[in-house]
Design goal:
Strand content: 15-25%
Strand order of the largest sheet: 1-4-3-2-5-6
CATH architecture of the largest domain: 3-Layer(aba) Sandwich
Radius of gyration: 19 Å
CATH superfamily of the largest domain: HUPs
Number of domains: 2
Bound molecules: adenosine monophosphate
CATH topology of the largest domain: Rossmann fold
CATH class of the largest domain: Alpha Beta
Distance between the termini: 39 Å
Length: 279
């Protein structure tokens, strides 16, 4: 595996790979790798000739009060994990090269970014769309891999790729979970032992909602009330949002019909966790 820090060098490598007829698969991440990230790499290896993974904690997608500074970082550990998974190139750009002093351009995806995390983290999806555009222009992937864990992010990227005619196929893969159901996330590392136990309530609430829907409940309000009640039983939990949206356009639903996404963001102590389930 080759570590690449320079944008120009990454672009040179990608151009050469393309010229040689290689299919480039790309897994963008913010690092502190876990099985969720590695599942994307494994799928990428099956589909593509070359795997490029990026590790970049993108300052543009964090709000001023958010955890940009304390976001977990461990390049040595990440490089070892990526190497073991046979990543070909680990691209780790520097802030000063990604956003130099004269940086001016922002990519905004309307509509799908307006609800859920988009509403509660102003500017977050502009940051995501901008950095992913930059990374696509540098890595020149044929296929890029994202996780359903960040369902709204995946939808934003798909919409951007379609609207801007980017020549990249977007592959969205299922959520990887811990044995007790908690969705894997780099932020789980912030949880202490009791918070870690409390965090199980997110997946429990989603499963309870799915069971209600399967039993015939069709009122989105009643289902989210039921989820709220369950989560509020946990002392350390503060609900940011619980919504039921159309799985395609992320518009809120009053009545359950067709494919819906149950999505939630919950604070466990000072840790913001998100999870979702398509039903
Ligand atoms: P992050 O490093 O958190 O920005 O995540 C990088 C990519 O990994 C994103 O496409 C995420 O959706 C995906 N990802 C994160 N957690 C999981 C998970 N538990 N299961 C599957 N994919 C995940």
């Amino acid at each position: 595996m080759k570590l690449v820090y320079s944008i120009a060098q990454m672009q040179r490598i990608s151009r050469a790979l393309r010229k040689a007829g290689k299919i480039i698969g790309f897994v963008p991440t913010m690092g502190y790798l876990h099985e969720g990230h590695l599942s994307l790499v494994r799928r990428c290896r099956k589909d593509c000739d070359m795997i490029v993974m990026s590790i970049y904690v993108n300052p543009l997608q964090f709000g001023p009060q958010e955890d940009y500074r304390r976001y977990p970082r461990d390049l040595k550990r990440d490089a070892a994990l990526a190497g073991k998974e046979k990543v070909d190139y680990l691209f780790v750009p520097r802030d000063a090269d990604m956003y130099p002093g004269n940086y001016n351009t922002i990519v905004e995806v309307k509509g799908i970014s307006d609800s859920m995390c988009g509403a509660l983290r102003p500017g977050h999806f502009k940051g995501v769309a901008t950095v992913v555009t930059k990374l696509f222009n540098i890595v020149l992937p044929d296929v890029a891999y994202f996780g359903q864990k960040d369902a709204q992010q995946a939808a934003v990227i798909k919409s951007m790729v379609r609207d801007l005619n980017m020549a990249v196929r977007i592959n969205v893969l299922p959520i990887r979970r811990e044995p007790d159901g908690l969705a894997m996330s780099s932020r789980n590392a912030y949880l202490n032992a009791s918070q870690r136990r409390d965090a199980r309530i997110l997946y429990e609430a989603l499963r309870k909602a799915r069971r209600s829907i399967e039993k015939g409940e069709r009122s989105a309000r009643r289902i989210s009330e039921e989820m709220k009640k369950l989560i509020c039983k946990v002392n350390s939990a503060i609900i940011e949002y619980i919504v039921i949206v159309d799985a395609r356009d992320f518009k809120e639903k009053k009545t359950i019909e067709g494919r819906v996404l149950l999505a939630l963001a919950v604070w466990i102590g000072k840790v913001r966790l998100i999870d979702n389930m398509e039903v």
